Every structure is written in structure tokens, then in C-alpha cells.
């Protein structure tokens, strides 16, 4: 059922499209601001990564970075779920800089969707780099069971996460590993 996705796309474009985003983000990160976090260039705020090069890829594909888009979807109207395609394109886009600067250590940070194909992303990176991954928000817990409906789930708010994920997989045109 793509009705929820269509409604979300119409009502919350910022959560469903990158069309409103600038071509590049510019955050100096030199001030003590909570919203800078891991992107801070200050050693007091970000002791582990303040000297690092960081690339922020906004999550606007509404598919946990799992969806696969190909050229045959170009003429289709409605929402497109391209998260995995976006992640791989971001890596390809950053490769020239990684090679130019001789990136020795690369840390990929992403959610549960990214973690399902982290080995594919790591294979795209320079062979000389030590690659590691950090999962951001991979523990999913339902704290309030009262608002999760039973077998009749008409939209994602009334369904358990395992139900919405299994319904999203074919819609996003992705294949999850059997371990998922």
C-alpha cells in the first residue's frame, strides 16, 4: 500500500525529497553548538573526530536507505525510494577526495538500513583504508505497545515495525539479507 507514502510525500516534502536542499551544506563546526555534534571541529566537543573530514548525507528517501532506483523508473510519477542508490552514489562522489588525500581510516555511520549492506559500501572504498562502521539508532524498541494495532494495520502508525518493514521491502525494490 503506497497510500501512506503518497500522503507523506504531499504533506511533508522535506521528509520525502531532496529537491528543497542546497547543493552543498556548509557547517564550519568551530563553535560550541549542540546541533553540530559529531561534525564539530572543536576538540573539546568532539574529541574523537574533530580532525576528521565528514560528509553528511541527509535522509530524505523514506526507506531506511534501502531502496534501489534504476533508469526504468525515470518516467514513473509518485514517490521513488532510492536510499541505497543514494548511499552508493555518495561513496562514488567522495572517492576522488579519499584517494587524493590518502584516507587511511574511514568510518561509515548509518542506520539499520545502511548496516544491511555495509560490506558492499566497504568494498567500494580504497583498499588501503581501514574501514569500520558505526550503527546509529539500530536498536528499535516499542516502548508503548498500546498504540500498536493488531493485524489490521491501515497505516504505518498503527502497525508494528516488523510489519511495516516487510511491507516496505517490495515497495522500495530492495532485497534484505536472509539474516534480517
TrEMBL record:
<protein>
    <submittedName>
        <fullName>Uncharacterized protein</fullName>
    </submittedName>
</protein>
<dbReference type="GO" id="GO:0016787">
    <property type="term" value="F:hydrolase activity"/>
</dbReference>
<dbReference type="InterPro" id="IPR004963">
    <property type="entry name" value="PAE/NOTUM"/>
</dbReference>
<dbReference type="Pfam" id="PF03283">
    <property type="entry name" value="PAE"/>
</dbReference>
Amino acid at each position: 500500500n503506497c497510500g501512506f507514502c503518497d500522503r507523506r510525500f504531499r504533506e511533508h516534502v522535506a521528509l520525502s525529497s531532496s529537491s528543497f536542499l542546497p547543493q552543498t551544506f556548509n557547517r564550519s563546526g568551530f563553535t560550541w553548538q549542540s546541533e553540530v555534534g559529531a561534525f564539530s571541529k572543536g576538540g573539546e566537543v568532539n574529541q574523537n573526530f574533530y580532525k576528521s573530514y565528514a560528509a553528511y548525507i541527509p535522509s530524505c528517501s523514506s526507506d531506511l536507505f534501502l531502496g534501489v532506483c534504476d533508469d526504468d523508473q525515470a518516467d514513473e510519477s509518485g514517490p521513488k525510494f532510492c536510499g541505497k542508490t543514494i548511499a552508493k552514489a555518495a561513496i562514488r562522489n567522495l572517492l576522488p577526495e579519499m584517494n587524493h588525500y590518502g584516507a587511511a581510516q574511514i568510518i561509515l555511520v548509518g542506520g539499520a538500513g545502511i548496516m544491511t549492506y555495509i560490506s558492499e559500501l566497504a568494498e567500494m572504498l580504497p583498499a588501503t583504508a581501514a574501514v569500520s562502521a558505526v550503527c546509529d539508532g539500530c536498536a528499535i524498541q516499542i516502548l508503548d505497545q498500546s498504540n500498536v494495532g493488531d493485524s489490521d494495520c491501515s497505516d504505518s502508525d498503527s502497525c508494528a515495525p516488523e510489519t511495516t518493514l516487510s511491507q516496505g521491502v517490495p515497495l522500495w525494490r530492495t532485497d534484505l539479507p536472509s539474516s534480517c
